[in-house]
Amino acid sequence: MCGIIGCVGGQEASEILIEGLRRLEYRGYDSAGVAIIDNGIVQIQKVKGKIADLQKILNKLRLKGTIGIGHTRWATHGRPSELNAHPHHSKDITVVHNGIIENYRVLVPILKKKGYVCKSETDSEIICHLIQMYLDQGLKMEKAFPKALCQVRGSYALAVLYEKEPHRIYVAKNASPLVVGKGQGENFVASDIPAILNQTRTILILEDQEWGFLEKDNIRIFNLKGQPIRRSLKTIQWSLATTEKDGFRHFMLKEIYEQPMAVQNTLSGRLGNGHQRIDLPELEPLFPRKKNPFERIYIVACGTSYHAGMVGKYMMESMARIPVIVDLASEFRYRQPVLDSRCLMVVISQSGETADTLAVVQMARQKKAKIVSICNVMDSSIPRISEATLYTHAGPEIGVASTKAFTAQLVVLSLFSLFLGDLTKNLNRKDVISAIESLSKIPSQMKKILRPDAVYQRIARKYAHCPSLLYFARGINAPIALEGALKLKEISYIHAEGYAAGELKHGPIALIDEGVPVVVLIPQDEHYDKTYSNIEEVQTRGADLIALATQGDKLIPKIAKETIFIPKTQWFLSPLLFSIPIQLMAYYMADYKGTDVDQPRNLAKSVTVE
Ligand code: M6R
């Protein structure tokens, strides 16, 4: 989604803005632009395409201004073009925007009648005209800005320059993320923390329906009624290195390799009493007197996080015997779900900003359901309105394709399920201790799978030209088959479908023909024989089998073209290990095809609009 950066202070703005835009690139974009106040005049430069092209222009211009705003645009309203790129401009006002102004179609003709004509096809442009209109009516900027905000419906994160106040950046937020960074004699604004982490670690997070302004030595925040807001600053602990590639070709590959550490960090401090007990103090207020007050659990998420939720259902139902319903946030919010205070709502989101998931949390709050979120980004919007948050400690995830955040979500879901199993007495002490023992081994088992292996390059060479791949598995690994297909589609643009193996005969087997690549996940669990029968069915119809099997399996290599061995673990932890080869397979296929692995076309890292 669109990214915003802004700076006011001592350093030349053009360098800071370009560096900030680079750090926002991972969110996905099709055009970029900046506005810098140079010698009192707003200079706007925009390009369709890459930030490097924008940088070339700025290098030639050599602007010396120390205040500016920048934007990466991910098109929603209006095609990708220079005209539609931000900043947008109306006489004295220049604006960058992330979000969607839902009532812009109503506002465009009203503004036009008054002589404020939109030149672009975007919803965003109306914002600068609205503010300008109020300024022309004689209001001061500190009144005109919030008045304009009250006229727009929808989501916005905004950074605004007013040529008559060339020492200030105005900012505002509603349902799209925006953070302010406090420096020494300079201040910053950005869509997310990594964009300004090289400048400052002191952050102020704006809340919905707040606006304010930044000057060199001053940050002021207000609500829409104009009342000042006092908010404490946060110090960010993560290191900048976690947001850089560290010698890997892509962030995605680096993040795949970071999984043992991400799992370790997510477990850290949660295995209590010398690895005898699950410690999740965040959940205690929801389970008074260590009893379960909930009749059912909903797990709601989007994309990869939804697949984690599907795995969570297998774990929770089996360990805690509580009914679990898993749904896509984009569907759930428009259904009439039966929600009340007896429901526990578990929402999963790496970014904590996904618009549909956030809307589900708001809806569940109204219905008095209790909300536990599983998020990776600290203090993002979803944790801020949840009763409890179980953070995954995967570190910043930059690659658009989610990898380490996914496996960290699976770790949290397994801890949560064990916690519930213990609480409901469906698990005994021995079960919990043995589960903890297996969990603790996961990082070292992951490292074994992550050994550099020619198999993925060979698979890529052999199958990257194929029009389509099928993935299948049973039980708790069926969602991993879906995740494997999603990973491949999003970064390699090769069509792929994932199925629960039992569904093959109900349709997909018709796709099997000579040489069709089929990826099967077959751990040695209770479903082994049934999945093996499915393997035989596709193999006799000519499929090329790529199998992920348990270490020591003698049968599978005889029937599969390629076998990748996975160390043995308990059933509920096998998705953690089986996820890694499907990520590597997708990565090497995409890299072989030469796609933009970290920023695949049309995709954005955090989907902050519907
Ligand atoms: O930040 P979230 O976990 O809420 O994001 C949900 C999806 O947009 C995300 O998982 C998406 O499917 C990824 N690109 C998958 O790799």
Number of domains: 3
Shape: globular
Mean pLDDT: 93
Q: How do the strands line up in the largest sheet?
A: 3-2-4-1-10-9-11-14
Number of helices: 19
> Helix fraction?
25-40%
Explained architecture:
This protein is of the alpha/beta class and 610 residues long. The protein has three domains: 3-237, Aminohydrolase, N-terminal nucleophile (Ntn) domain (Glutamine Phosphoribosylpyrophosphate, subunit 1, domain 1); 251-450, Rossmann fold (3-Layer(aba) Sandwich); 454-593, 3-Layer(aba) Sandwich (Rossmann fold), CATH 3.40.50. 36% of the residues lie in helices and 22% in strands. It has 19 helices and 25 strands. An eight-stranded antiparallel β-sheet has the order 3-2-4-1-10-9-11-14, with helices on one face. It has a six-stranded antiparallel β-sheet with strand order 5-6-7-8-12-13. Strand 9 (179-182) and strand 10 (187-190) form a beta hairpin. Helix 15 crosses helix 19 (574-593). It is globular, with a radius of gyration of 26 Å. The N and C termini lie close together (11 Å). The mean pLDDT is 93. Bound molecules: 5-amino-5-deoxy-1-O-phosphono-D-mannitol. The site of 5-amino-5-deoxy-1-O-phosphono-D-mannitol (M6R) has 16 residues, from helix 9.
List keywords for this structure.
single chain; 610 residues; alpha/beta; Glutamine Phosphoribosylpyrophosphate, subunit 1, domain 1; Rossmann fold; six-stranded antiparallel beta sheet; 19 helices; 25 strands; 36% helix; globular; binds 5-amino-5-deoxy-1-O-phosphono-D-mannitol
Brief digest:
With 610 residues, the chain is α/β, with parallel strands linked by helices. It contains 19 helices and 25 strands. The protein is globular and about 80 Å long.
